[in-house]
Amino acid sequence: MREHNALLPKSRYYLIHAKRQAKYENDEEVLALIKKCWKWHSVESAIYAEEKVIELKENRQKEKNNL
Question: Hey, what long-range contacts does 55-59 have (CB within 8 A, 24 or more apart)?
Fold first, then answer.
């Protein structure tokens, strides 16, 4: 349980940064994903949303490299 709770501040910090970056870049897909997956009061949703945003960014990078 401690490891799980230790991930929460990291996940929240990452999501706040990703949200700011998405707003700056007008990235509606990331903003919608964060809004859909992240509930402020939930530990699991913060970790889940972080994983989904990272996965989306990795997929975009792979597509970019394949072009």
Answer: 56/29, 56/30, 57/30
Give the span between the Cα atoms of 65 and 21, in whole angstroms.
21
- At residue 60, the pLDDT reads 92
Exposed / middle / buried, residue 56 (Cβ in 10 Å: 0-12, 13-18, 19+): middle
pLDDT in tens, 12-50: 888 999 999 999 999 999 999 999 988 877 878 888 998
Query: Which residues, in sequence order, are CB contacts of 22 under 8 Å at separation 6+?
Result: 28, 30, 31, 34
